[in-house]
Amino acid sequence: MKNPLDQPTATIHTMRARLATPDPPPATDPKLDALVREIIERVADKWTMLVLEVLEEHGVVRFTRLGELVGGISQKMLTKTVRQMESDGLVKRTIHPVIPPKVEYELTNLGRSLGTAFCGVWIWAEEHHEEIDHARRTFRRDSEIA
């Protein structure tokens, strides 16, 4: 059976029906629509997902260690990423009054729930990685011929 997401005319209604979840209300709230798009843009960011994954795996982590575990991220980008995640309620920052300052980060319940939600994407990618690799190879081959 074909995946309804492969069809260009797929709508949120057919996707939800296919996933056996209730249909959204007939009129979608524009504010909610905008919020969902904004959240997807943020969490689709490479660094946000990596920070989310590290904090999910390691729990409470100091700033410097978080940067080491994420790998390849500048201090400026890490600061920007965790601040945005904190602003969105995904991360809790704790500052300990010691010298030098000790700053720790951990996921909030909201952040953990986002990690759980995106776990489905990882599972999907794991299940379909061979199909994706095949499609990419085919596309590259066909692009070279054209």
List keywords for this structure.
3 strands; globular; 146 residues; mainly alpha; Arc Repressor Mutant, subunit A; Transcriptional regulator, HxlR family; disordered N terminus
Give a written overview of the molecule.
This protein is 63% helix and 10% strand. The protein has a domain of 101 residues: Orthogonal Bundle (Arc Repressor Mutant, subunit A). A hairpin with a 5-residue loop joins β2 and β3. The radius of gyration is 20 Å and the shape is globular. With 146 residues, the protein is mainly alpha-helical. Strands 1-3-2 form a 3-stranded antiparallel sheet. It starts with 11 loop residues before the first helix and ends with a helix. It comes from Granulicella sibirica. InterPro entries: HTH_HxlR (IPR002577), WH-like_DNA-bd_sf (IPR036388), WH_DNA-bd_sf (IPR036390).
